[in-house]
Amino acid sequence: MVHIKTDTSIEAMRDSGRVVAQILARAREVAAVGVTPRELDEAAREVLREAGASSPFLDYKPHFAPTPFPAVICVSVNDAVVHGIPSAEPLRDGDLVSVDAGALLGGWAGDAAVSFTVGAARPADTRLIATAEAALQAGIGAAVVGNRIGDIAHAIGTACRAAGYGILDGYGGHGIGRSMHEDPSVPNEGRPGRGMPLRHGMVLAIEPMLLGGGLDEFRHDPDGWTLRTTDGSRAAHAEHTVAITDDGPRVLTVL
């Protein structure tokens, strides 16, 4: 079931979205060569405490997971695409880092992700990250009343494929509201004009996940959470929580 939000509810979701944006900003600020992903998680926990918010990630256990997620953010490094558990291994010069964060505030969820390089960036990584961000913006641009879910999917997929990148098979965006994951699913590739019509009050987490080697396949780490490219290529992830409104798409996970 798709839950349509009132304008008042969207304003409340803006508050939780702002906390998510603060977490991602803090993670980028703290991340440096020698810093561990676990330290990024500690910094995210501090942001949540300061805001009086909680994490929808911590102890989350979907059907595929062998154990509850043990952190408040996902930190996926290099060939890890998504769902990376923050580790104690220090970040190295040139690492490509994706941070996915969520927040619950006032009973409403926010969800967003960003990718960046620690230290000196490889040109190929810079292009990959820029394409992920461009694909996200293309998806947001298609998130207008009168369009359909397929229009968002097509916009994202077109940007990814035109650049020669793979798209994480079977994963995409989702509705969001009282829960982090709600209907509808928002694929990262699809046909325009297909799928559910977009209405004022729908709120979606739009999140392209790009695989640098051009393949769509992935493998699971032994932890049961982390998804990695099968060819060892690097990956990038970009995400925002977006409200569909009569005035156009409204990004809720910004400062």
Report the major sheet. Answer: 5 strands, antiparallel
Oligomeric composition of the shown chains:
single chain
- Low-pLDDT segments: none
Q: Indicate the radius of gyration in whole angstroms.
A: 17 Å
Quick check: average pLDDT?
98
Taking strands numbered 1, 2, ... along the chain, how are they ordered across the largest sheet? 7-6-8-13-14
- Count the DSSP helices: 4
Write the H/E string, N to C.
Answer: HHEEEEHHEEEEEEEEEE
Structural category: alpha+beta
Estimated helix fraction:
25-40%
Q: What is the count of β-strands?
A: 14
Q: Which geometry do the CA atoms define?
A: globular
Spatial gap, N to C terminus: 30 Å
Share of residues in strands: 15-25%
